[in-house]
Design goal:
444 residues; mainly alpha; Amino acid/polyamine transporter I; 17 helices; globular; cell membrane; transmembrane
């Protein structure tokens, strides 16, 4: 009597040979949202990077400018450099692509340890950012309602506006692949540039307020220190795109002659030019106009002209809809992979429907929690202290493989040269902690 063949998606079966596991993995990759479509163009990466990075955090930058602009400029430079490193690392091993952030961690630290180090932090940041975006979307809808209706409409609680915002994602969350949200991401990127322009343009139109104050808000050293750290969190939140870089690059086709890093880097450059046009005018002009009295969402400091403020808030809503999807897609991919490989579910539309609705419901419940952050700035301080900056984590993973894509060429490891590696940015993780500290300080 013939033996029964192993379950096709039973990755844990001991009877499954290497060839069958490879076939299983290929079939799974053809179904998962990150790897099932690899026909993206370079401008797709530009849309996704702008959508992922600009975010609603740009609206809190004037609130963060009290401690100075140095950190904002350093963060722009350093995050661009670390983003370039990640683009290079995507295919640093010949014949292999690191399509997901945790795959890079597994290569550096091993199959299990890499997951334990990377996945919890990545999930905290991505789910936390989505909760903040859901609250931001609800608050912007509420502001739009108040601006349009003024005193003629009854007050509606923020909870209901969050539910309205969340309802959109019960549809968009079922788009199958990362490439399928490209138009959503494009619309979000355009909206980010639009509402950023409105933010600084309306600020200039408003004029410098009377008795504007630019000094320290707090009279005590402790208060000043905490305000400074809060500002670092605001800036770190504004440069929050590194978590999805690997997944974005995974959608771009790659061959030995034409690796994906070339079009990806072109998209990153375009994205960072857009980021600069969004961030610096809003941060500098917003703080110049309002000083220390600026709200942590600059649109709450602006009240006229009504039609322009209403339009800007609707632009914010459209943008955070796109940002939510960009950050949610890697989480969907991760959980769907877990359900198939660990629990042996068949890849199916029903599995995708259940997983994504469940995750979105949990995020919605998180945004409705009494302990949720009530502002963008509070969200920054909630999400980022719970997870070290992505750049620091990436640098550790990067140098643990003794590679150097920076301004130096790394020698072979030697205790004698440890100090020189730390100064030049090369070596093992324990020799680059000085550099990691610089990255950490610059990114909150």
């Amino acid at each position: 009597m013939a033996t029964q063949p192993p379950t096709y998606y039973n990755f844990n079966s001991r009877n499954t040979n290497i060839e069958e596991k490879i076939d299983m993995q290929k079939t799974l990759d053809d179904w998962l949202p990150i790897t099932s479509s690899r026909n993206a163009k370079w401008w797709y990466s530009a849309f996704h990077n702008v959508t992922a990075m600009v975010g609603a955090g740009v609206l809190s930058l004037p609130y963060a400018m009290g401690p100075g602009v140095t950190v904002l400029i350093l963060s722009w430079i350093i995050t661009l450099y670390t983003l370039w490193q990640m683009v290079e690392m995507h295919e640093m091993v010949p014949g292999r692509r690191f399509d997901r952030y945790h795959e890079l961690g597994q290569y550096a630290f091993g199959e299990k340890l890499g997951l334990y180090i990377v996945v919890p932090q990545q999930l905290v940041v991505e789910i936390g950012v989505n909760i903040v975006y859901m609250i931001t979307g609800g608050k912007s809808l509420q502001k739009f309602h108040k601006t349009v209706c003024s005193s003629s409409c009854k007050h509606i609680k923020l909870t209901f506006f969050i539910m309205i915002f969340a309802s959109v994602h019960f549809v968009l969350s079922h788009l199958p692949t990362f490439n399928s949200i490209t138009l959503v991401s494009l619309a979000a990127a355009i909206m980010s540039l639009s509402y950023s322009t409105i933010a600084w343009g309306a600020s200039i139109h408003n004029g410098v307020i009377e008795d504007v104050q630019y000094g320290y808000k707090s009279k005590s050293k402790a208060g000043t220190t905490f305000n400074f750290l809060s500002a670092l969190g605001d800036v770190a939140f504004a440069y929050a795109g590194h978590n999805v870089v690997m997944e974005i690059q995974a959608t771009i086709p790659s061959t030995p002659d034409k690796p994906s890093k070339a079009p990806m880097w072109k998209g990153v450059i375009v994205a960072y030019i857009v980021v600069a046009f969004c961030y610096f005018p809003v941060a500098l002009i917003g703080y110049w106009i309002f000083g220390n009295s600026v709200e942590d969402d600059i649109f709450f400091s602006l009240h006229k002209p009504n039609w322009l403020i209403a339009m800007a808030n609707m632009f914010v809503v459209i943008h955070v809809i796109g940002s939510y999807q960009v950050y949610a897609m890697p989480v969907f991919d991760m959980i769907e992979t877990l359900m198939v490989k660990k629990f042996n579910f068949q890849p199916s539309t029903m599995l995708r429907f259940v997983v994504r609705n469940t995750l979105h419901n949990l995020a919605t419940m998180g945004s409705e929690s009494p302990t949720n952050p009530n502002s963008i700035s509070e969200g920054n301080r909630t999400v980022y202290p719970m997870s070290p900056p992505e750049e620091r984590q990436m640098v550790v993973l990067y140098f643990s493989q003794r590679n150097c894509y920076g301004w130096c060429r790394c020698p072979q490891p030697s205790i004698r040269h440890g100090k020189s590696w730390m100064g030049s940015g090369c070596g093992y993780p324990d020799t680059v902690m000085g550099n990691n500290f610089v990255y950490a300080v610059a990114n909150g």
